[in-house]
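Lab manual, section 2.4: Encoding a predicted structure.

Procedure: take the sequence of the chain (205 residues), apply the prediction step described in section 2.3, and record the output as structure tokens. A sample record is shown.
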Amino acid sequence: MGQGSFWNERYAHTGYAYGTIPNAYLKEKAAGLAAGTILLPAEGEGRNAVFLATQGWETYAFDQSVEGGNKALLLAAQNDVEISYTVSEVENIRYPEKKFDALALIFAHFPGADRRTYHRKLSSFLKPGGHLIIEGFSKNHANYQQLNPKAGGPRDLTMLYDLEELKEDFNDFEFTEAAEQQVTLSEGEFHQGEASVIRIFAVKK
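Recorded output:
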């Protein structure tokens, strides 16, 4: 099963796989920023994009899943906000360079061989002085997955994050926060329990 088919199947159900409330780290960091334009790659069913739109952000999102896009637009309508949502693979997505005030990669895991290329492409869409917010599973998260399948995350170790690799991917940023942390997730059905994540808050030079 291809990745697109996997996500379409996961998002085809009535409920929201990762819930409808925003990621806690994204919510915390966005609260300290002036609302502007933000891009959310691999945004799935739209929980983060819709929340940010309710906070006054001009929100752009994309994901490879048609079903995810449909759910995101439904959630936006239920919250009386508009979001710009594109169904696209990351390699095909196009935005003007230096368009966005913020870029948020929330559990946006890409194949290891392509990760750096994709991250640098996405960062090109961010304005100098723009903010980068990342939360994703670290390579140590594989230990938590073995203990608790509901912890979530890719099973492909190459798709899990390494802090030093991420710093190199985004080497034209100044890092305010960059750390691996153990957290307890409660995001819908598929992010539940103890997890090892990497959290980054940075500014593009």
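Check your result against the sample. The mean pLDDT is 96.
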